[in-house]
Amino acid sequence: MQALREVVPDQIWVKEGPVHFAGMDLLTRMTVFRAAGGVILHSPVEIDAATRDAIERIAPVRAIIAPSTVHHLFVPSAQQAFPDAPLYGIEGLEKKRDDLHFTALLGDEPPPLWAGELDQVVIGNRVMREIDFLHRASRTAILTDLVENFQDRTPGTNAFLREFMEVAGMWNHPRAAPELRILTIHREAARDALEKLLAWDFDRATLAHGELLDQDPKSAIREAWSWMLD
Fold it and tell me: What pLDDT score was predicted for residue 1?
């Protein structure tokens, strides 16, 4: 597996890493993007020496982002690799991870470090909340579980995951993570957040799980959340 895979030349890179959860094997994805005079790590995976070196060859790490209340497992690995990088986390994560020391907690307003380069919006519920971003320079939406896009060609999955996804109607069909889809009950606030995101100017999206949305991502997001938007 490559240390980093370039998605947008000199702007966006990704790295996948394995996760085992409730008997299911899958890959999770980190997005690395240029901002704040260096690069920012979004939803870190385990940072091995090759990945650390590949990132350092691009630019200094200006921040580490834990973008979701369920995507934080590998943050200590990123902090060990880049001890001088400040840590930003979605508001509420500090209650789950009191072992982590956050520079700031994130909501809908960008902090000064990346204001003007990224837009952001929060969506979710008390169990699963995430903050999604627009990387303006590359016209890329950087998502976590807002959409999961498992396909027949998706590597790193086991039979149990596929069976679960097929039952949930998510195999070969981009959908929101079940925890987002089922537990997000404040429909008006969620709809407003989705419409804000869909008004952004982007033509691709990175996600934590499954294939990237590199063709008509807005249609895929609208389909994934059609029950909320219609």
Answer: 63
